[in-house]
Amino acid sequence: MSLTPHPAHNGHTGVMGTIVNLVAVIVAIASVAAALGNAAYLAILNSAATKRAGGAPITTYVRSRWPLAGGTTAGALLAWLMTASDRVPVDFLALLIAAGSGVVATKALRSTQERYRTGG
Model pTM? Predict the structure, then answer.
């Protein structure tokens, strides 16, 4: 009995492995979009605050949020990179990392939007 996968499977378990990989890729791409959306919103907010008198509290807030934005972006990109593997367990791990990064980035974006939302 060999501990390595059969060469014909390339580490995937046929169709199921392909489906798991496809789902992981889709979730990773969505996670990257959410993380970059959060980072872009922070950049726009910071740019507007630096041009406005009295924007110092906003720039301080934005500065405090950069580590979270960077971490979620790094996690999402790592997950997307992991989907290049031909192993189902790695795809599952990528799926978990991507989902976590995406959820955290989305919550951070919503929190920032609610904090600085003006008008209708």
Answer: 0.83
